[in-house]
Design brief:
CATH class of the largest domain: Alpha Beta
CATH superfamily of the largest domain: Ribosomal protein S6/Translation elongation factor EF1B
Distance between the termini: 83 Å
Largest sheet: 5 strands, antiparallel
Order of helices and strands: EHEEHEHEH
Radius of gyration: 24 Å
Number of strands: 5
Helix content: 40-55%
CATH architecture of the largest domain: 2-Layer Sandwich
C-alpha cells in the first residue's frame, strides 16, 4: 500500500457538515484495509482566486495509506460530492503524522483542533511543533521587515524626487 496526502477545499457553506463527510471518507479507507495517519481541519481561508464564485474555502488535509482501488473510489466520491470545490492527491514516500506547516500557521491561532488518532510520542511532537511555530513566526517577522524597508525606500525615493524638482525649478529661474 502507498501513502497519499489529500487536500480538500470544501464549500464554506458546508463547513458544519464537514465532520460527517470526513468520517465517511475515513470509514471508506479503513473498511478497505487502509490506514488514516493524519486528518487536519485547517479552517476557512481566503482563496488566491475565485472558485465557483467563492472567495473563501474550508481547507482539510488528510494523510492516508491505501491501495489504488480505494484511492480511485475515494477520488470518485470527491468528484461527485458537490460540497468539495477542489481536491489534490499527492503520493508520498512515507507517512506524515506530525502537524503540517499549514496547520501550524493557520490552524492553531484560531483554536482549530487536529484530529489525529495515532500520535504516539507527544513530547517529541510538541518539541517539533514549537520549533515549526517559531520558524513560521520568524518568517512572518522577516516579511514584515521587508515590507517596512520597501515602504521606507519608496518614501526616500519620494523625498529625493521632490528635492530634484526643487533644484530644477531653481535652475530655471
Amino acid at each position: 500500500m502507498r501513502h497519499y496526502e489529500i487536500v480538500l477545499l470544501v464549500h464554506p457553506d458546508q463547513s458544519d457538515q464537514l465532520s460527517e463527510m470526513l468520517k465517511r471518507y475515513q470509514d471508506l479507507v479503513t473498511k478497505n484495509g487502509g490506514e488514516i495517519h493524519r486528518v487536519e481541519d485547517i479552517g476557512r481561508l481566503q482563496l488566491a482566486y475565485t472558485i465557483n464564485d467563492m472567495h473563501k474555502a474550508h481547507y482539510v488535509l488528510m494523510n492516508i495509506e491505501c491501495d489504488s482501488q480505494t484511492l480511485a473510489e475515494t477520488k470518485s466520491s470527491f468528484e461527485f460530492n458537490d460540497s468539495i470545490m477542489r481536491y489534490l492527491v499527492v503520493r508520498m514516500a512515507n507517512a506524515e503524522t506530525g502537524p503540517s506547516k499549514l496547520f501550524m500557521v493557520h490552524g492553531k491561532g484560531r483554536k482549530q483542533k487536529q484530529v489525529d488518532s495515532r500520535l504516539k510520542d507527544k513530547d517529541s511532537a510538541s518539541d517539533q511543533d514549537k520549533k515549526e511555530l517559531s520558524e513560521a513566526k520568524d518568517q512572518e517577522n522577516n516579511q514584515d521587515v521587508d515590507d517596512k524597508s520597501e515602504v521606507a525606500l519608496t518614501d526616500s525615493d519620494k523625498q529625493i524626487s521632490t528635492e530634484e524638482k526643487e533644484e530644477q525649478a531653481n535652475e530655471k529661474v
